[in-house]
Amino acid sequence: MIAARLLRGVAGVTGFLVAAELFIRFGLGEGLVFPAPSAILLGAWELLADGAFLEGALATLTNWVLGLLAATAVAVPAGVLLGALPPAERAIRPVLEFLRPIPSVAIIPLAILLIPVDELMKVSVIVYASIWPILINTLYGMRDVDPMAKDTLRAFGFGPLAVLVRVSLPSAAPFVATGVRIAAGIALVLAVSAELVAGGAAGIGVYVNVAGSGNRTDLMMAATFWAGVLGVAANLALLAGERRLFHWHRARTGEAES
C-alpha cells in the first residue's frame, strides 16, 4: 500500500512537471516570468555547488531546528500542566484562543523592532509559530488518557506524579509527536519568511531576495525548491519515527475506527 501511494505521488508530480514544461515551452504562458521546470531543476542542481546558498541553507536549518526545539521545550510542559489541571486550562483558554489565530508572519515586523539581534529575532518568531500545534496536541493527548487506567493506578496507591509519569505522559506522547511534526512544517515556513522580510547575512530567504534582485527567477525557484525538499524530508522522517515508536497507538486507533 505504501509503495502504491508512493508511485501515485511520483506519477502525479511527474505529470505536473511535464505539463508545466510543455505549457511554457510551447509559448502558452506568454507574458509569464515563471521559468520552466527544467530550468528550475537545473538551477537546483547548480545550487549544490554554490557556497553562498549552502551557507544560507545551513543558517536556515540551524534557526529552524533551534526554534522547533525551543518551542517543544516550552509547549510540552505547558500542555501537560494545563492538561493535568483543567481549572487552569479553562482560565487560560481565552488567552490561547486569542493569540493562536494571529498570523505568525504578521508579527515579524514587530519582532524586528523588539529584538535587535537578527538570529534571535528569527528564532523567536519560529518559536511563537511552532508552539501552538505542539501545545494544542499535547492538551488533546492529556484529555485522551484512559480514565480507567488512571483510576486503577490510584487504587493501587500510586500518587498523582506516578499516574502522570506512568499513564498520562505515555498516552499523550503520540499526540505530542504529531504536534511536533505539524510544527516542523510551520517552523520552516517562518524561518524562510523571516529571512525574506528581515534579510540578514545568510539564509534561503536571503538567497531568494538576492537572486530576485538580479532577476534570476530560476535561482529563486531553485532555492524555494530546496526549501520544499527540506520540509518534505523532515515530515517523512518524523512520520517514520511516529510509526516506529507509536505503532501501538496506530493499532489502537485503527481498532477504534473499525
What does it look like?
The protein is globular. 83% of the residues lie in helices and 0% in strands. By secondary structure, it is an all-alpha fold. It starts with a helix and ends with a helix. It has eleven helices and no strands.
Outline:
With 258 residues, the chain is an all-alpha fold.
List the helices and strands and how they pair.
Layout: H1 2-25, H2 37-47, H3 51-84, H4 86-99, H5 108-114, H6 118-143, H7 147-155, H8 160-198, H9 204-213, H10 217-245, H11 247-257
Helix pairs in contact: 2-10, 3-4, 3-6, 3-8, 3-9, 5-6, 6-8, 7-8, 8-9, 8-10, 9-10
Mean pLDDT: 82
Q: State the secondary-structure class.
A: mainly alpha
Shape descriptor reads globular
Order of helices and strands: HHHHHHHHHHH
Low-pLDDT regions: 251-258
How many DSSP H or I helices? 11
What oligomeric assembly is this protein in? Answer: single chain
Query: Cα-atom Rg, whole angstroms?
Result: 22 Å
Q: Percent helix among the residues?
A: over 70%
Q: Main beta sheet, described?
A: none
Taking the alpha carbons of the first and last residues, their distance comes to 18 Å
